[in-house]
Write a structure and sequence with these properties.
Number of domains: 1
Radius of gyration: 15 Å
Helix content: 25-40%
Distance between the termini: 43 Å
CATH architecture: 3-Layer(aba) Sandwich
Protein backbone atom coordinates (compact mmCIF):
# COMPACT_ATOMS: atom_id res chain seq x y z
CA UNK A 1 0.00 0.00 0.00
CA UNK A 2 1.43 3.34 -1.08
CA UNK A 3 -1.01 6.01 0.13
CA UNK A 4 -0.62 9.62 -0.94
CA UNK A 5 -2.64 12.39 0.71
CA UNK A 6 -3.18 15.33 -1.63
CA UNK A 7 -5.59 18.10 -2.62
CA UNK A 8 -8.31 16.97 -5.00
CA UNK A 9 -8.30 17.98 -8.66
CA UNK A 10 -11.25 18.38 -11.02
CA UNK A 11 -10.55 14.95 -12.54
CA UNK A 12 -11.04 13.43 -9.05
CA UNK A 13 -14.65 14.62 -8.83
CA UNK A 14 -16.20 11.39 -10.22
CA UNK A 15 -14.32 9.43 -7.53
CA UNK A 16 -15.50 11.88 -4.87
CA UNK A 17 -19.07 11.43 -6.05
CA UNK A 18 -18.72 7.62 -5.90
CA UNK A 19 -17.27 7.79 -2.38
CA UNK A 20 -20.16 9.98 -1.26
CA UNK A 21 -22.52 7.32 -2.60
CA UNK A 22 -20.63 4.64 -0.62
CA UNK A 23 -20.96 6.89 2.45
CA UNK A 24 -24.71 7.21 1.83
CA UNK A 25 -24.96 3.40 1.71
CA UNK A 26 -22.96 3.17 4.96
CA UNK A 27 -25.33 5.71 6.53
CA UNK A 28 -28.28 3.59 5.34
CA UNK A 29 -29.63 6.33 3.07
CA UNK A 30 -28.45 5.74 -0.52
CA UNK A 31 -31.72 7.15 -1.86
CA UNK A 32 -30.95 10.48 -0.17
CA UNK A 33 -28.16 11.20 -2.68
CA UNK A 34 -30.20 13.01 -5.31
CA UNK A 35 -27.71 15.51 -6.72
CA UNK A 36 -25.77 14.76 -9.89
CA UNK A 37 -22.14 14.33 -10.79
CA UNK A 38 -22.50 17.44 -12.93
CA UNK A 39 -23.61 19.37 -9.86
CA UNK A 40 -20.45 18.23 -8.06
CA UNK A 41 -18.30 19.24 -11.02
CA UNK A 42 -19.92 22.68 -11.13
CA UNK A 43 -19.51 23.19 -7.38
CA UNK A 44 -15.86 22.12 -7.53
CA UNK A 45 -15.17 24.36 -10.55
CA UNK A 46 -16.84 27.30 -8.79
CA UNK A 47 -14.76 26.67 -5.63
CA UNK A 48 -17.90 26.04 -3.59
CA UNK A 49 -16.47 22.70 -2.43
CA UNK A 50 -12.95 21.39 -2.05
CA UNK A 51 -11.47 18.08 -0.98
CA UNK A 52 -8.39 16.23 0.13
CA UNK A 53 -8.01 12.66 -1.11
CA UNK A 54 -6.13 9.52 -0.18
CA UNK A 55 -4.81 7.81 -3.29
CA UNK A 56 -3.37 4.31 -3.64
CA UNK A 57 -1.68 3.62 -6.98
CA UNK A 58 -4.01 5.92 -8.91
CA UNK A 59 -7.22 4.92 -7.06
CA UNK A 60 -8.97 7.37 -4.74
CA UNK A 61 -9.66 5.33 -1.58
CA UNK A 62 -10.69 8.04 0.85
CA UNK A 63 -11.58 11.72 1.08
CA UNK A 64 -12.60 14.68 3.14
CA UNK A 65 -14.92 17.08 1.31
CA UNK A 66 -15.36 20.54 2.82
CA UNK A 67 -16.21 24.19 2.27
CA UNK A 68 -15.74 27.54 4.00
CA UNK A 69 -18.56 28.99 6.03
CA UNK A 70 -18.98 31.67 8.68
CA UNK A 71 -20.17 31.39 12.26
CA UNK A 72 -21.69 34.57 13.60
CA UNK A 73 -20.40 33.50 17.02
CA UNK A 74 -16.92 32.18 16.16
CA UNK A 75 -15.93 33.60 12.75
CA UNK A 76 -14.50 31.76 9.76
CA UNK A 77 -15.18 28.03 9.79
CA UNK A 78 -14.27 25.09 7.59
CA UNK A 79 -17.24 22.73 7.37
CA UNK A 80 -16.49 19.04 6.88
CA UNK A 81 -19.38 17.84 4.72
CA UNK A 82 -18.20 14.29 3.96
CA UNK A 83 -15.42 12.10 5.35
CA UNK A 84 -15.05 8.57 4.05
CA UNK A 85 -12.46 5.81 3.63
CA UNK A 86 -13.24 2.67 1.64
CA UNK A 87 -13.81 -0.29 3.94
CA UNK A 88 -10.80 -2.28 2.69
CA UNK A 89 -8.54 0.67 3.55
CA UNK A 90 -9.69 1.27 7.10
CA UNK A 91 -7.50 0.56 10.13
CA UNK A 92 -4.32 1.72 8.34
CA UNK A 93 -4.33 5.30 9.63
CA UNK A 94 -5.66 6.76 6.38
CA UNK A 95 -8.63 8.38 8.08
CA UNK A 96 -6.36 10.03 10.64
CA UNK A 97 -4.05 11.28 7.88
CA UNK A 98 -7.01 12.74 5.98
CA UNK A 99 -8.43 14.35 9.12
CA UNK A 100 -5.03 15.82 10.03
CA UNK A 101 -4.71 17.27 6.51
CA UNK A 102 -8.22 18.72 6.84
CA UNK A 103 -7.32 20.38 10.16
CA UNK A 104 -4.17 21.83 8.61
CA UNK A 105 -6.24 23.17 5.71
CA UNK A 106 -8.61 24.83 8.20
CA UNK A 107 -5.69 26.51 9.96
CA UNK A 108 -4.14 27.58 6.64
CA UNK A 109 -7.44 29.22 5.66
CA UNK A 110 -7.59 31.13 8.93
CA UNK A 111 -10.61 29.25 10.28
CA UNK A 112 -11.52 29.80 13.91
CA UNK A 113 -13.15 26.37 14.10
CA UNK A 114 -14.18 23.32 12.15
CA UNK A 115 -17.57 21.74 12.26
CA UNK A 116 -19.28 18.55 11.04
CA UNK A 117 -22.04 16.10 11.85
CA UNK A 118 -21.80 12.50 12.97
CA UNK A 119 -24.72 10.10 13.28
CA UNK A 120 -25.65 9.18 16.84
CA UNK A 121 -25.30 5.43 16.08
CA UNK A 122 -21.83 5.77 14.53
CA UNK A 123 -19.82 4.84 17.62
CA UNK A 124 -16.61 4.33 15.64
CA UNK A 125 -16.94 7.83 14.20
CA UNK A 126 -17.83 9.40 17.54
CA UNK A 127 -14.86 7.71 19.22
CA UNK A 128 -12.55 8.84 16.39
CA UNK A 129 -13.60 12.47 16.83
CA UNK A 130 -13.35 12.27 20.62
CA UNK A 131 -9.84 10.83 20.24
CA UNK A 132 -9.06 13.99 18.27
CA UNK A 133 -10.33 16.20 21.13
CA UNK A 134 -13.57 17.15 19.37
CA UNK A 135 -16.58 18.50 21.20
CA UNK A 136 -19.61 16.39 20.27
CA UNK A 137 -22.73 18.48 20.83
CA UNK A 138 -26.00 16.68 21.48
CA UNK A 139 -28.19 19.64 22.33
CA UNK A 140 -28.66 21.19 18.85
CA UNK A 141 -31.11 19.75 16.34
CA UNK A 142 -30.75 20.15 12.58
CA UNK A 143 -33.31 22.17 10.64
CA UNK A 144 -33.79 21.78 6.87
CA UNK A 145 -36.11 22.83 4.09
CA UNK A 146 -35.83 20.98 0.78
CA UNK A 147 -36.77 22.68 -2.49
Amino acid sequence: MNIQIRKARIDDVPSLYNLVYELAVFEKEPEALTTSLESYEDAFSENLIDAIVAEDQGEIVGMVLYYMTFSTWKGKSLYLEDFYVKEAYRQFGIGQSLFDAYLEEAKARGAQMTKWQVLDWNEVGINFYKKNNAVIETNWWNGKIYF
